[in-house]
Amino acid sequence: MRVLKMTPDAAVCLDAPCCDPGRSGATLFFFKDSQFFCWDVESETMLEGYPRQIASHWPGLLESSPGARLRGALHVPEWGPRIHFFFEGDPDAVAWDLEAHAIVAQRVPARELLPSRITAGDFTPVLARLAGNERVIYGFQGYEYTRWTVGASWPATEDEGFPRRIDQDWKDGLVLAPRAGIYVDWPNRSAAHSNRKIYFFMGDLYLRWDVPSHTRNYRLDIASGWKGWPVFA
Q1: N or C: which end of the chain has fewer CB within 10 A?
Q2: What CATH number was assigned to the domain covering residues 10-225?
Q3: Domain limits of the chain?
Q4: Could you tell me which of 46, 1, 93, 35 has the C-alpha nearest to residue 233?
């Protein structure tokens, strides 16, 4: 069986970098196995000096769920300077304090943070903005997905009418839950087209989804679409 090397275990977008002093601007973080790398949104390039070891910049993160792989990452600015990390087979989310640069001692059950039957197992979280600019969180699992509207605190319930079938609402795009996903609002692309995209990663491929039109742009192999994307050992 071929081992797929390209797709990340987790991805998250931060408005400012947290691992490269002196830099500014939105940064995409991709985590894979014991390493991570950063992508600069403005220049649309991978930052130099990556990939790096997660342990060197995120001490204690992987040890918080020994032996488990990262399954997702979620940063909701309205909830404060924290990233919630999810691990395979672990019912709790692990919070990372971006200001203290350390793990938060108290763990949070995923179903308490994001209430749904979907979050009782492994799922893929994606923070995004809808066409009307409302911020939401998607959760994908198996053939289903759900959605929560973002507020100042954790949602009490998922949005009405969810969970739903993935293939009903992400036509010509998704059928199964992606392995990872990330929303990006590119600042330097054509004014004639939408720059608001969600990227879904599956195996060695990724799917680019246009948010305002809620349609698929294309599916492409990761190495071709993300120049400089590393191959992990």
Answers
A1: N
A2: 2.110.10.10
A3: 10-225
A4: 35
